[in-house]
């Protein structure tokens, strides 16, 4: 590859001559091909805002702490058709003008977990999923309205690599009093001390991660004014490790996390 040059803004432009016929092209003379490649030195530092919709309404009580929960592979796993062997419910969101089927499996213990923590915390779901998909899913997952607020993809920031980043500093809560639980630690890379990585859930019905988290929120956090100290002591510092890093493709239609 020749002609590589840095353009700034996190991209390198590669220019090269290619020949031959490909796809619908009929030209057989060499032509110039221009490719953009993310500059790995800069990419994750470059973050853009998608919208201003991520500021939550004021807390109903100053005493409340906030638990921010990711959705896909944290609370549920959903897959488009064909249907898996077992699933809990189906939704049919309209995405980009297409009606699609998603078969949703709830993570073991999710109902009990939401019921328990919502008595003590403000519960927010912050997902990189699209609103038409996630809102339908949450309507069924949370019929009692235990989740106080929902933030969707348009509340995420975007890195130049296309990752969706959940910036907790923009939601209007004191960061001492916020914890985020997410199967992808990269999504909270702007505030790693506030994050609890959780094992990615797909179809393991023996999974007990939400049970463990329930113990943390119900019993362990009481002694801490700053939730980041509780995270650090209980989970060893947050920020995640390789075992909890998501291997999901970064540009799935419903979520890149
Ligand atoms: Mg996730």
From TrEMBL:
Coiled-coil zones: none
Residue spans of biased composition, Polar residues class: 245-257
SMART domains recorded: CPDc
Superkingdom assignment: Eukaryota
InterPro entries, A to Z: Dullard_phosphatase, FCP1_dom, HAD-like_sf, HAD_sf, TIM50
Positions of the UniProt region annotated as Disordered: 238-257
Domain spans labelled FCP1 homology: 60-220
Protein's name in the database: FCP1 homology domain-containing protein
Organism: Hibiscus sabdariffa
């Amino acid at each position: 590859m020749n002609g590589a040059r840095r353009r700034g803004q996190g991209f390198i432009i590669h220019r090269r001559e290619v020949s031959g016929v490909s796809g619908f092209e009929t030209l057989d003379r060499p032509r110039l091909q221009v490719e953009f490649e993310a500059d790995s030195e800069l990419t994750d530092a470059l973050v853009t805002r998608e919208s201003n919709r991520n500021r939550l309404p004021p807390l109903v009580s100053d005493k409340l702490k906030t638990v921010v929960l990711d959705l896909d592979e944290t609370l549920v796993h959903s897959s488009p058709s064909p249907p898996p062997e077992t699933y809990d419910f189906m939704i049919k969101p309209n995405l980009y003008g297409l009606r699609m089927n998603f078969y949703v499996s709830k993570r073991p213990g999710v109902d009990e977990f939401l019921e328990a923590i919502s008595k003590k915390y403000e519960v927010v779901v912050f997902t990189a999923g699209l609103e038409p998909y996630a809102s339908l899913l949450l309507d069924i997952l949370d019929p009692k309205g235990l989740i106080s607020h929902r933030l969707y993809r348009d509340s995420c920031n975007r890195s130049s690599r296309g990752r969706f980043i959940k910036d907790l500093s923009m939601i209007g809560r004191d960061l001492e009093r916020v914890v985020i639980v997410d199967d992808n630690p990269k999504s909270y890379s702007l505030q790693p001390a506030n994050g609890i990585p959780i094992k990615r859930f797909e179809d393991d019905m023996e999974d007990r991660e939400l049970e463990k988290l329930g113990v943390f929120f119900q019993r362990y956090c009481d002694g801490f004014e700053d939730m980041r100290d509780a995270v650090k002591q209980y989970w060893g510092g947050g920020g995640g490790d390789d075992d909890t890093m998501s291997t999901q493709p970064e540009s799935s239609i419903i979520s890149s996390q």
